Amino acid sequence: MAKMQRATIKEAAGLIKDGDQLTFSGFTIWRRPMALVYELVRQGKKNLHLFEVNGGTHTEVLAGAGCVKIWESCWVGHELYGKLGESIAREQCDPNSHMVIEDYSHAQVVARLLAGAMGLPHLPSALSMGTDILNPEYDMLGKAGLRDGSNPKIPKNKYVMHHDPFFDMGEIALIPAVNPDWAIIYASMASDGGIIRMNAQTYTDAEAIRAADKVMVIAEEIVPDNFMRRDPARNMAGGHMVDVLVECPWAAHPTGSQGFYDVDADFIRSFYAASKSREGYDKWAQEWIFGVADHQEYLEKIGLHNLEKLRANSVLGYSTRMKRGSR
Fold first, then answer.
1. pLDDT at 1 over 90
2. Domains of the chain (ranges plus CATH)?
3. Strands (E), 97-156
């Protein structure tokens, strides 16, 4: 493995090639590497293949900008702030769309990532058997002629039914592994040697790191290596697993980073409303992606006052400045 590279957000985005298969850290509206996502849009990346345990705000930004060719997942939305992924839904309903959307159950997507992380070609599973997810009619990559073996990131079959040879338990589905070109990970902190740590739930980040060919870490802050080594049980991965490391405060905004800042609910609600039409998305993108030169200008546009409202209390781990609703 090559030595870990330190990079800026722009330099890191430049390493992603058109057509690469990407997977992301986090869950729906938590710990998504948004600063990198915005920069991918600014740089005009095309034909990206997203493999996700679930989609979120980052998915919708990339899909709305026309960066995505293939999306494999189980769900997309913004939780409380927008239940539906409007950009993905619009592509799925458009008969002229060039995006291929492959549906798995939540657990099947995790199974594919687990297989990839363990170095296995597939994982046997009874997940979602008897449902239309395993109906050959809905093998969308197959119907698009993309399971011909020419793309090493696309398995030749969505699944294969196999008779259990050990206990005669009947038919079971073999779910293919996934090994993305890149795992793009937002980390709460990283050391200067590349050790990474999350402050809260880790979701399937560890599996994404182990499954991917290359790992890009966007860290909220970089701390001394010897600090991270004092409590190794809290660390997710060592520097030998990280290819690219970027330090970028507020890199997850408008999604949240537990212990650093809360989800920017108003911002996501506004984006969700705009994304309900292609024209609305384009207007939003002109203001918030193309209307700023970089992440620093983006933060300046949001404003210090608004960011400080989101900042987490260092003891409680969440913001005490936000109104959270009442009965």
1. no
2. 5-310 (3.40.1080.10)
3. 100-103, 122-125
